[in-house]
């Protein structure tokens, strides 16, 4: 199969990233490795940020594909566990791409898709009535904890990594944001979170958009 200019540039950049890390991704080095002139790179991606987005997406494709293939079960909390394990596995097996993904604030596209998938799992926990904190905060806690674990382990020599840290951190954050059962999450904040999640999923037409916004604000206050 004949590669397009864009494919050649992305693959060249990916190889440089794996060999030399983020610092190896200069426009001159990428252009030379792909056998094109620097202006071609800018015409293809617009700017270097566009290139970084494309490289991150290229490196993240297998992860996102596996994430989609995980599917959904009847237990969204267990789905969160499986998603966490997959995320950590990717970060430790592909550290160069992971560092680009989460260490480069200008990378957007692929990370947004991954963040949306995490949020959907958290929303399903809320819809099941088992979320203890608001959806946005819960998603941020899971993301921050997972990223912290991965970056900490990446920074350590493989022989010094504490594999138990992965499970301990996962269970700690899950215990923080969820209840073990629907009955255990019968307090008022959890009910407010579940009601807001249900309304966001199916707002109906009983309330106007302004009334929906006001109700969502009230529910957020109760949840906090």
From TrEMBL:
<dbReference type="GO" id="GO:0003700">
    <property type="term" value="F:DNA-binding transcription factor activity"/>
</dbReference>
<dbReference type="InterPro" id="IPR036271">
    <property type="entry name" value="Tet_transcr_reg_TetR-rel_C_sf"/>
</dbReference>
<dbReference type="InterPro" id="IPR050109">
    <property type="entry name" value="HTH-type_TetR-like_transc_reg"/>
</dbReference>
<dbReference type="Pfam" id="PF00440">
    <property type="entry name" value="TetR_N"/>
</dbReference>
<dbReference type="InterPro" id="IPR009057">
    <property type="entry name" value="Homeodomain-like_sf"/>
</dbReference>
<feature type="DNA-binding region" description="H-T-H motif">
    <location>
        <begin position="26"/>
        <end position="45"/>
    </location>
</feature>
<protein>
    <submittedName>
        <fullName>TetR family transcriptional regulator</fullName>
    </submittedName>
</protein>
<dbReference type="InterPro" id="IPR001647">
    <property type="entry name" value="HTH_TetR"/>
</dbReference>
<dbReference type="GO" id="GO:0000976">
    <property type="term" value="F:transcription cis-regulatory region binding"/>
</dbReference>
<keyword id="KW-0238">DNA-binding</keyword>
<feature type="domain" description="HTH tetR-type">
    <location>
        <begin position="3"/>
        <end position="63"/>
    </location>
</feature>
<keyword id="KW-0804">Transcription</keyword>
<keyword id="KW-0805">Transcription regulation</keyword>
